[in-house]
Amino acid sequence: MAERIYPGDSPPSSGEHSNPKPAPPSSDKPIPQPGTYVVQIPKDQVYHIPPPENARRYAHLSKRKSSRSTCCRCCCCLLTTILSLLLAAAIAAAVIYFVLKPEAPNYSVESVAIKGFNLTSPSPLSPEFDVTVRADNGNDKIGIYYEKGSSVNVYYQDVNLSNGALPVFYQPTNNVTLFKTALKGSGIELTAASLRSISNDQNKGTVPFTLKLRAPVKIKAGSVKTWKITVKVTCKITVDKLTAASKIVSKDCDYGVDLW
């Protein structure tokens, strides 16, 4: 019988089987070979899971940040409130100033009578000063209450010679008040240099003293009365002699207040 011959086929060679070995199945993806590989993943697709100890630390830090932010908010609220109160107080003070037009009272020493200075005796001195102070309140709408707790002191150089207090009284608006206060000292010992100095000053007719006055007062405007304010007056006075008939040669007074 004749053999079949197919077009394009070569005749089988001798010794080969008639059924050929089937080819391996084709695949779109290559089969990886055993070994080590580097896998590249896009950065936005990487998810990091911290270890437990780092997670606890992160939670602790997050809690601290939350506490700090709350504290900062409280501080900001407190600061805003304080600034608002200060602004309101400043506005109120400005309104009061323009409505009342306050003026500082004027103080001066009108006369001084001196006793108890025996500069020829070595025994301690007991000086006495009868001082007349003039207080001028020129305000139209403000009165002044002079309260308890005042003090008046007379110094020669740095030595406190005598002390006393002002009377308690009320000074109305547009008023001038003259009040006398008796100042006394006892057991005052001056050094030999101070005795020579005050004796020389008396011989020259110019004995300098410093009078310091401190008085707690309350300001009255209409029906409103303020808290206690301390009036401070310091007067530099010079007298011609250390007797009851002494006269003031010169005087210069400074005035100030302590609001609290």
UniProtKB/TrEMBL annotation:
InterPro entries: LEA_2, NDR1-like. It is a single-pass membrane protein. It is found in: Membrane. The chain crosses the membrane at residues 78-100. It comes from the Eukaryota. Residues 132-235 form the Late embryogenesis abundant protein LEA-2 subgroup domain. Keywords: Membrane, Transmembrane, Transmembrane helix. Residues 21-33 have a biased composition (Pro residues). GO terms for cellular component: plasma membrane. GO terms for biological process: defense response to other organism. Residues 1-35 are annotated as: Disordered. Its main location: membrane. This is Late embryogenesis abundant protein LEA-2 subgroup domain-containing protein. It comes from Gossypium harknessii.
